[in-house]
Amino acid sequence: MTRAFDTELEAIGQVLAGPWRAPRQMLHHQSYDDHASIHDDATAQMLGFRGGTIEGPTHFSQFAPLGEAVWGERFLAEGCISAHYRNASFAGEEVRAFLEREPGEDHATIWMTKRDGTEVLRGTASVGLSAPPTALDLRLNELPPLDQAVILADLTVGQRTKRIPIRMDMNQHMGALYPFSLDDKLKVITEPSSWYTGAGNPWGRAIIPFEMISVLLQHIARQDGVRVRGPAVGLFADQEISLIKGPLFVGEDYEVEREVVALSGSRRTESYWMRTRVYRPGGSEVIATMLLNHATLKDSYAPYAVEKAALYPMG
Fold first, then answer.
1. How far is Cα 295 from Cα 270, in angstroms, rounded to an integer?
2. What is the pLDDT of residues 63-101, one digit of tens each?
3. Which of 159, 173, 205, 251 could make an S-S bridge to 260, C-beta 3.0–4.6 Å?
4. How far apart are CA 214 and CA 235, in angstroms?
5. In terms of Cα–Cα distance, which of 162, 163, 167 is closest to 253?
6. Looking at residue 47, what is its pLDDT?
7. Burial of 259: CB neighbours in 10 Å, binned 0-12, 13-18, 19+
8. Which of 184, 181, 149, 195 is nearest to 308 (CA)?
């Protein structure tokens, strides 16, 4: 059986490094709530960014060959990537993925840098349910609660959605949030693999890449009934994708259920942390999960100051 990736890797002591890559920006035309997103150059520049940002999970593809080199096909069936996004990257910038693992361990530290040393993300990669807590498990336990919510004033921790059916076909356009198909992505993905089309993999079927699992689970976000005040612009600040019972397959029907598991904030943002659980239709066994920190920029919500004064008149 062939290996999943032909990516050339470099061993630097106990660190495994991938090649320098310049991920493609595919969200220039993304829209939600009838407005452009942080991936649009003009919108991003208005909010103080250099330009439209590369979506965070795009970088997960560069870690897939590292995980497979360490744990084999198991990483593509029960692997987990858990990361805190530290700095945005932009079209044309080269980035490099690193993984450091102690021999024999089922978890590792991961990070990604730009050419100038700027760290794009940092977190953990692991396999199996017996691995230690992930980077975001630890981060969730350290979060201070959100104080004086405005954009997220209508959300509560523990709020759940109903089951929503999902599916990703090879040529399926994924909607306004993701205006492209899996086939479009595979033509420009940083780490191509025949396994993504089903050729030579252990399952005999096309599997969905880590970064496109994010698209699959998130493209129906406006159908889940969870509403934040807006229009406002958000970005992904933390993300974890975990496979539990094998890969997710192209052309397969699934169902998802989503839950708000935390609310947090910073000087510039209000964040809600959403855990998405994936099931087979009608099933009760969780086969994959995604934890996503949606950080909404306060400055992008026009009535923020007025509504805050109304909601919290004493302070």
1. 6
2. 999 999 999 999 999 999 999 999 988 888 999 999 999
3. 159
4. 13
5. 167
6. 47
7. middle
8. 149
CB neighbours of 114 closer than 8 A, spacing ≥ 6? 87, 89, 93, 94, 95, 120
Question: Which pTM value belongs to this model?
Answer: 0.92
pLDDT band at 1 (very low <50, low <70, confident <90, very high): low
Max Cα distance, the chain (Å)? 67
R_g of the chain computed on alpha carbons: 19
**Residue environment code for 204-236, b if the CB has 16+ CB neighbours within 10 A, otherwise e:** eebbbbbbbbbbbbbbbbeebebebbbebbbbb
CA distance 232 to 150: 11
Nearest to 275 by CA among 217, 210, 211: 217
CA–CA dist 12, 30 (Å, integer): 38
User: Length of the chain in residues, anyone?
Assistant: 315
Question: How far apart are alpha carbons 62 and 189 in whole angstroms?
Answer: 9
Residue with tokens 């991003």, as numbered in its chain: 44
Cα 135 to chain centroid, rounded? 14
Do the Cβ atoms of 106 and 208 come closer than 8 Å? no
Q: Read off the amino acid at residue 40.
A: D
**127-133, long-range: CB < 8 A, 24+ apart:** 127/67, 127/71, 127/74, 127/75, 127/78, 127/79, 127/80, 128/74, 128/78, 129/78, 129/244, 130/106, 131/80, 131/106, 131/107, 132/107
Cα–Cα distance, 286 to 81 (Å, whole number):
17
Superfamily of domain covering 10-311: Hotdog Thioesterase (3.10.129.10)
